[in-house]
Write a structure and sequence with these properties.
The chain is an alpha/beta fold. It has ten helices and nine strands. The chain is elongated and about 65 Å long.
Length: 264
């Protein structure tokens, strides 16, 4: 099999007990439709197929894609596996069956874009289980006080929880930091509903435009509104104008989006 490519953030994980724990965290069942992002050498792929799922594996690296195809009959239940050579950020998710699940070990650089893509898709997954850098997993699951644009984006659509930690030395080559599994279950409707999602995130992005500034200053600058207007609105919702954006919860962001977005 190919050596890991640093440019693509590839790190191979081969410990069967850890791979099995990832699949267990994903709560997949026999017959589920699953999307795996970046199957690499196919180690997680094999455990998923052993669980009896129908698997679509999207691999960007053409060399790995070819190797997986040549060795497809070595997998359990190979008839349940479809391998696609494509950039996941360009992959048409509407081709997948409704309520599919995502299970993947992904590089750090892909995390935010992938979560946004999956969350905002016209055919979003029922659940997402990712092995990512531990710090990133913690950011996704952060509580008010440590929130970020990433955690607001993820938690608006999904209920999130942390699962097993995977030490760096379990990977080939070892990354600089440990990794952790995060499991995300789709909400029946987004926290922002029935607001227009673009309106909601326009307000959130304005708020997080400068984490070091107070909410008053970041919203005033980001939305091009007079400070008095912003201050009065914040006070109306019992939000301290001197607070920082990371301190707010999702319902507070929703209220601010309703106030500053005009409900549009």
């Amino acid at each position: 099999m190919s050596a890991p490519k640093k440019s693509l953030g590839q790190h191979w994980l081969r410990d069967t007990s850890i791979l099995s724990a990832i699949v267990e965290a994903s709560e997949v069942s026999q017959g589920d439709n699953v999307l795996e992002v970046g199957p690499g050498q196919g180690t997680l792929t094999s455990v998923l197929l052993s669980a009896g799922v129908n698997l679509t594996a999207v691999e960007y690296d053409f060399e790995l894609f070819e190797e997986l195809g040549k060795n497809i009959n070595r997998f359990p239940n190979p008839h349940n596996l479809k391998i696609v050579n494509e950039d996941i950020l360009k992959f048409d998710l509407t081709k997948l069956p409704k309520d599919y699940k995502v299970v993947a070990n992904i590089p750090y650089y892909l995390t935010s874009n992938l979560i946004r893509l999956l969350s905002e898709s016209k055919n979003p997954p029922r659940s997402i289980t990712l092995l990512v850098q531990k710090e990133v997993a913690e950011r996704i699951c952060a509580a008010p006080g440590q929130m970020s644009l990433l955690s607001v984006s993820a938690q608006n659509y999904y209920e999130v929880k942390l699962d097993i930690i995977v030490p760096a030395e379990e990977f080939i080559p070892p990354p600089k930091v440990d990794s952790q599994v995060v499991h995300m279950t789709r909400r029946k409707q987004p926290i922002s509903s029935p607001l227009n999602e673009k309106t909601f995130f326009r307000i959130v992005k304005a708020g997080f435009s400068s984490r070091r500034k107070t909410l008053l200053n970041s919203l005033s600058g980001g939305l091009n509104l007079p400070k008095d207007t912003v201050s009065n609105t914040l006070s109306e919702y019992n939000i301290n104008p001197s607070s920082r954006p990371q301190e707010l919860d999702l319902l507070q962001w929703k209220k601010l989006a309703e106030a500053f977005g005009g409900g549009a």
